[in-house]
Fold these 2 entries.
Entry 1:
Amino acid sequence: MNSSRDYKIFSILILVVAVIAVSFAYASLTHTLKIAVASPGKEANESWAINFNNLSKGKKTGAAEENSSPVIESSTTVANFDVTFYSPGDSVTYSWCRK
């Protein structure tokens, strides 16, 4: 009878270890990775200046539909666009165009 009890205890211990391992794996995969890169000769706390202008027409993939094009409200804000996706893999991509 002792081996049956040992088997149950061992099984429960393995189950607990597996749950803990899966929890750590899930936590590490869902964690947001933040990377700060400093260029040589520049301060690490300098910020980037990102400005929007001259967006391209939307490049559609799959069955996606562009209901309304994006509007550049200010040099840092793109808004008022409406896109419909019908299946996984659908996308609409906008690029910056030099003019």
Entry 2:
Amino acid sequence: MNKTTKESQESSLPLAPTEGSRADSSGSFDAIPDGLTPIVPLLKKSVEHMRMSNGFVKDTNGELIQLNKGVGKLIWWMRVQGLIGFLLIAGLVWSLVALRDLRLRLDQQLGHQAQTNDQLETVVKKLGETYEQGKETKDAIDEQPILTVKPADAADPSSVPTLIVQPKAVRPEGASKSPPMPKGVEIPIDLPPKRK
């Protein structure tokens, strides 16, 4: 009998217990047909392997559930971080736009300030010129001599009125006291005779 014939006979054998063979709770059979005796240990081992694999599958399923929960939490946390990142980027863009507007306003203000400074410089220059002119005028007025007229003496018929030109005393710079008044020049005034 060759190998293929033996395998076909084994595969055609019934695996379920027959009438005379009943399995008890321990997994042993009351009466095992003679042809199935070598297969029983293999069946027991396969049952044990199936139990072990079922336990492994349960453990694997539990770990997969935990892993799925962890992945769900990670995805939720990534969404929260994405939202925070989006808000930060939106705030940064808004800040850049606000800074750009502020820079434009500052540039305009600097332009207006430069124009105002130019106008103030022109006004200050004109005020300086006006001050110099006023100072020159004041100095010219201060340098004018004092003119006084001395009337003629009524007791002396030959006396005539006299114009007295008296220059102002100029105090040199740094001097604490004014110099004495200089003597004036007397100029007689010849009046035409009165017509009768």
